[in-house]
Fold:
Amino acid sequence: MAPILQIKELSHVYSAGTPFQHTALDGVSFSVERGEFIGIIGHTGSGKSTLMQHLNGLLKPTAGSIALDGVDIWANKKVTRQARFRVGLVFQYPEYQLFEETVYKDIAFGPKNMGLDHKEVDRRVREAAQFVGLTEAQLEVSPFDLSGGQKRRVAIAGVIAMEPEVLILDEPTAGLDPVGREEILENIQAYRRAKNATIMMVSHSMSDVARLTQRLLVMNGSKLAMDGTPEQVFARADELVEMGLDIPEITSVFLRLKQMGLPVEPVYTIEQAVAVLKALKEGKRHA
Amino acid sequence: MLKDITLGQFFPGDSIIHRLDPRTKLVMLVVYIVALFVATSWISYGVMLAFLLGCILISRIPGKSIVRGMKPMVIILVFTAVLNVFMTQGETVWLRFWIVTITKEGCIRALFMVVRILMLVTGTFLLTYTTSPIALTDGLESLLSPLKKIRMPVHELSMMMCIALRFIPTLIEETDKIMSAQKARGADLESGNLLQKVKALVPILVPLFVSAFRRADELATAMECRCYHGGDGRTKMKLLRYSRLDLEAYCVGVILLAGVICLAVFGL
Ligand SMILES: Nc1ncnc2c1ncn2[C@@H]1O[C@H](COP(=O)(O)OP(=O)(O)OP(=O)(O)O)[C@@H](O)[C@H]1O
Ligand SMILES: [Mg+2]
Structure:
């Protein structure tokens, strides 16, 4: 099947022609297949958020192109607007965008803008609320009376309610406690399974992306530095560290074990680690 | 993007004008404005213009930025020009139709007014472009300090101004972010009639106000944590001190004002 998103030689310069000019993206190319779960990692200021805002046409490329289903999203106004709905973007700290009197109305903002009828809006709001684990009672309270984590869910639901084919999340778990993070990651996967959606997630947690994604994009200094499966990317641990990035803790433990002479392959999730260690133990017993 | 609006934005630099004491620059601006209103003839306007252009050259502010800063002024300028062209009575009639007459005097007057406003705004820009907001409020506080005698809360006022100036870029950035976030949910800010456009602002303004209040709260707490309690007995890290440069600048100011007054008196 043709890729759903195709990014070619994308560059972006902020405040071009002023003393504050800054190249935030430089010749980035990659494509996204339908149904993929992609993690985007990179140092602070490497251009991750800038890249994400290009994918649904919020920022206009200085050079290069973005095609959604083979159509350039800047072809005309209608296509651009359509791209906003088909590619849903949840911003960094999205809780600051809430504005309505009730949670229900706030989640309904996106679907209403799509011009859907009342019944469809209602269905989508309730479904989105369910995905992020908001109760019926919570739908009727003011979003400003909720806790930070709950607000975050409302904001995510506001985007999910548009039922985008590609859901992009910019650090959806930043500043949440471990339980809250786990729940939100669970919600995202639930949405992916239910709608067979494509997910792109920016994250600073290496263990999260290692565990959840099938593909990693590594941004470094405005450029796309690596693109591959988590195994491929984390195998280049030295380069990652040089870029100021971590590798999952379990991977560094296993790399060290290997250095110490144990016959183990590098792993990047706890489950894999358990399996490898068990196999090792079995092997020892039989020997 | 909103962020690219340069209205009154400080351009860091190291020119002579940047290095002047903020008080000098404030007083010079007042002198300049007074001179601008005293000036009535072509010659005196020429003198003022030469002075202004000289200052811009010395300050090394790119002309492009100044022109861009003028953009919001266009409506006022057009309005002034039209009003003056149509409302001024005069002898030499250039054009007459229906109830409108356009005279030579009207056109000249309009030109004068537009140039005056442009020079006024450019002069003010030159001050804010070359002076950091902190230095500016410091200078203002120092210049207004005699008013403390009549119980004017000068320090508090200048502190308020300083904070307001400091938060303009922050709020603009915030507005940009919120606008992007709502656009990502399909908010349409461009099309529709006036009522629809005003309505479309609600999703932007509500979060903006919420966050402005939150920031204000946080700032107040942070200031209190550092034991801030008003101006009495507060010393400054950067003391304002006049240098020779300032003396020279004042001399230039006096000469300029005297010159323009002389020209006006002799009716040139
Ligand atoms: N609106 C803007 N105007 C000017 N420069 C910007 C703007 N937004 C971002 N930048 C600059 O572009 C660069 C990339 O920013 P971006 O927000 O994409 O980084 P990021 O990878 O998302 O970082 P983080 O992990 O901190 O979120 C940064 O150096 C930043 O200073
Ligand atoms: Mg970011």
